[in-house]
Every structure is written in structure tokens, then in C-alpha cells.
Amino acid sequence: MISRAERVANYVILSAFAAFALFPIVTILGAALGPDDAGPAGQAWGPHLGNFAAAWEAGRFGTYLRTSLTVSVFVVVVSVVLSIMSGYAFGTMRFRGQAVLFYLFMLGIMMPSEAIAVPLYFDLRTLGLIDTFWSVALPQVALSVAFGTFWMRAYFRASSRAIAEAARIDGASTWRTLWQVLVPPARPAIVTLTVLVFMWTWNEFLIPLIMVTSESLRTAPLGLAFFQGQYTSGFTLLAAGSVIVATPVVVFYLFLQRHFVRGLLQGAVRE
Amino acid sequence: MGRPPGEPGRVAYLYLLPAFVLYAAFLLYPIGRAVQISLYDWDGLTLGRWAGLDNYTAILSDERLRAGFGHALVLIVFYAVIPLAIGLTLAAILNHAKVRGLGFFRTVVFLPQVVAMVVVAVAWRRVYAPDGTLNALLGALGLDGLTRGWLGDHTFALPAVGVVGTWFESGLVTVLLLAGMSRVPMELYEAARLDGAGAVREFFAVTLPSVRGEIAVALTLTVIAALRTFDLVYVTTRGGPGDSTSVPSFEVYHRAFGLGQVGSAAAIGVTLTVVIFAISFAINRLADKGTT
């Protein structure tokens, strides 16, 4: 029932936007795979995969990726486990002060990290914790736990109250009920939370920028920003470095797209 | 309230405790400290001097700070208003027509959401560079007169940063609205068609009212993102040229660690937090009001 003209117009609009969406991505991929613009003239045509090795070497991305991986794994594991526990309490139990405590956690979802990073820097400096793994990881655990509590509470409230009650009547302890009865079917919700926290932590820039001075603790995005400042003789290696930094999350996204979309869209929807 | 026998009560606090301890130490306590620091004139090293509300009044009187919040308003247009218009158009098309390659399109437009902002900024710096791809494109179209170093231009730097926001928020808004539109019952469209409504009437009479909730969510997410712009400005312009792209989040960093005005930085951070809470509250109130 759609006219031919309307159909053509639709494809034109969609293609134009897809082109806009892809333009910067193509720009950077093209530069990363093209001949090195700082190298000798007259290089061969075809993809130059050597750029990645050169960028890896020049930008020391090996160290940065290792730091990012350690920080991300720590933040994901700790904040997901703690969120499951706190979401379980909020979602299936009744206790005094529940509403107030829940609103306190909700504050953290919208809290801009800019507001807390400055006082944290000076207090951690007093404690001598600046420029340590903990100064990068723990503030991000706090930010992630706020969202994680909200996310797991919504899940447990919607699907687990009756099951938790039945398990209790059977005499199971709350601890066993959580880990052996409720967590296995909660896997999709937990996977979504895991990929979101991983992405946020991997991509975080401000907290490592403020907390870290030594090079060995730089995360991948921070390393890339410094590489951009120092490496000015061309764009090829910078583009290759950008691709290296972006790839882990993009690969996760391509395989677990449903979880990313669901998490980013539903995460904001109040019940 | 009465509790059935055997229902867990106090044990709930034990489950909350580990999360709460970390949350309180690294989020609640620092925001309290931010409020405290914001009342002092402090360079971060020597003893602070009580300043009362001076740091807050400076946000209105200091030209650079006022400009920063003004720039944030401009960014809201690019991050929230334009993506909403684009998202409504694209989602209406995708929902309406049976388009081939919908899955691919969705993957592509959502991709910017998962790429680190630093990478996004590096890519767009290249696009905007004097010898970058945008100028090459303009040159190829015979528009050499328009070429310039976009991020170094007093007039164009802020819109150039804004367009990056449009680029990465439009896909999010489109996918969000599409999810909402696909839940609109087909009968509503058929009824509108029977009443003789064209595509445009149908959009305003059926589609738009049905996705009011999704619009509120989209605006909340994108407005907050606009107000929190930091990585992008840090990597592309550092607030320059002059202060033409300075934004509140960047000012927080710049004042605390560049200028040694920690009290002022804390005051901007607190103000930003309050503004973010107020705006998201207002957007959700407006959306709720419309539905009841």
C-alpha cells in the first residue's frame, strides 16, 4: 500500500543517515588501514595491518590494555556480585528504612562523576591512595553499584518474590535461596548488567584522568588521549590506536547486541 | 507492618551492607565533601578561606562560567532536540515501511553508543581537521569556499562539537522510539486510515501520543549527556578557541586541576548535579502529566 515514491524517499532518508552514521567510522578505519602518512612515500596498496603493530609499539597499548582489563574485571565482578545481593534485599525483603535507602542508591544513577571526582581526589591524596589501582577502581564500583542495585531490584521484584517465598517455606536459607534458586534463572538480567558495567568501565575517561599519574596505571582511553597529544606526525598510528582501544567493547556489542540495547534503553525507564 | 513468620527482616541489612559501604564511601561522602569544599576559597594545597556562597554567585557573575552554562544549553539543542527530530522521522519510517536491512541499520546507528568517547573524539578531530575528510568532501563538491579548520574557528567550534553529539545520540533515540512505536496496536493505525488520515496526520494523531513515555526517556538521557560533556571537549578543543567551547564539566576539571580553584570547581559540580536532577525530574513530571 506504500507508493513507489514514498518507498524511494524512505530509502533515500535512511541511506543518508546511515552514511552520516558511518562517515567518522569509515574515516578512522580508512586511515588505520591505509598507508602510513608519516612513513616513506610509494607504499604498496591494500590494507596495512602493520600499522596496528606499529601503533601498539609506539603507543604502548599493551600496558594500557592490560590495566584496562584488570580494572574492568575487578569493577565488573565486585559491582555485579554486590548489586545482586543488594537488589535481592530490596526486591524480595521488607525492612525498616527501605524506601529511604533505595532513594539514596538512586541518587547515584544520575550523579555526574565530575561532581564527586574532585573531592575524592583530594581526600584520597590525603590518604596516600592517589595513583593506585584502588583510586581508579573503587569510585567506579560505587557508580556501577547504584545502577546495578536498581537493575537487579527491578528484576527480582518482577520475577522472584513468589519463588523466594516458596524456597523460604521449604526451609532454605536466604543465602542458598539467592545463589542456588534465584540467580540461575536471572542469567539474562545479569549478563545485561555485566556488559553495561564492562562498557562503562572500559570507556571511562575522567576518573583515570584525575586519579592516575604513572604511566603503568593508564587505562586504554587515557593512553589514547596522551598518545594523541604526543604523537603528532601523522594520523595513521593514532587511527590504528583508536581501533585497538575501541575493539574489545565493539566485539562484545556485535555478539551481545540485544543486551546492550536492552540495558541502555531500559536502564533509564522508571518502573 | 506485620511480617509472616520466617520472613527475613534484619538479614536484609547484611545483604545491603557491602554495596552500601562502598557506595557511601566513594559517592555519598564525596558529594557531601563537594558541598563543603564549595563554600571555601581553596587552592587544594594551603588552608582554605571561608567564602560562603561566593563560588555560587560567581557562576552568574563570572563571564567564562556563565558562558559555559550557555554553551551547555546550545549543546542540549544538538544532543537532544535535533536527535529527537531525526529519531522521530527515522523511527516512523522504519516502523511504517517494511524496510530491508533493518537489523543492519539498527546495528550501525546504535554503534556510536558503545565506542569510547575518546575514540569518537579522535575520529571527529580528523573529520574536522584543516586537511580532514569534511574539507576534502566539500572540496570534491566544489564548495572550497566553505572549508576551514572547524574546531579552531570561534563561530563554528561549538556547533562542530554539537554535531558530534547529534551523531552519537540520534541512533539511541531512534532505537528507543522504534521500540515504543512497535508497541502501538495496529488497529489504531487502521482506524486512523479508515478516518481518512494521511501519513502526516496519522503521525501526529496516533504515533506521537503513543510514544510520549519514550520521548521523555530519550530527552532525559540526551539532556544529561549534553550537560555532562567532558571527554569530547577535553580531546577536541579543551574549551577553545578562547572559551568558545568551555562547558561546565570541563570547567570543573580545568578549575580544580589547572587553575587551583578547587572551591569554585566544587561549586560548579554541585550546581551541575542540581541542574541535572531538576531537569530529569521536570521532564518526567511533564510526561506523567500528559498521560493522566
From TrEMBL, chain A:
One of its GO terms (biological process) is transmembrane transport. It comes from the Bacteria. GO terms for cellular component: plasma membrane. The keyword Membrane applies. This is Carbohydrate ABC transporter permease. Belongs to the binding-protein-dependent transport system permease family. The chain crosses the membrane at residues 12-33, 69-88, 100-121, 133-152, 189-211, 231-256. It is found in: Cell membrane. Residues 65-256 form the ABC transmembrane type-1 domain. The keyword Kinase does not apply. CDD domains: TM_PBP2. Keywords: Cell membrane, Membrane, Transmembrane, Transmembrane helix, Transport. Gene3D superfamilies: MetI-like. Coiled coil: none annotated. It comes from Nonomuraea rhodomycinica. It is a multi-pass membrane protein.
Automatic annotation (TrEMBL), chain B:
Keywords: Cell membrane, Membrane, Transmembrane, Transmembrane helix, Transport. Residues 69-283 form the ABC transmembrane type-1 domain. It comes from the Bacteria. The chain crosses the membrane at residues 12-32, 69-92, 104-124, 156-179, 215-236, 256-283. Signal peptide: none annotated. PROSITE patterns: ABC_TM1 (PS50928). It is a multi-pass membrane protein. It is found in: Cell membrane. GO terms for biological process: transmembrane transport. Pfam families: BPD_transp_1. Its main location: membrane. InterPro entries: MetI-like (IPR000515), MetI-like_sf (IPR035906), UgpAE/MalFG_permease (IPR050809). One of its GO terms (cellular component) is plasma membrane. PANTHER family: BLL4140 PROTEIN, DIACETYLCHITOBIOSE UPTAKE SYSTEM PERMEASE PROTEIN DASB. Belongs to the binding-protein-dependent transport system permease family. This is Sugar ABC transporter permease. It comes from Nonomuraea rhodomycinica.
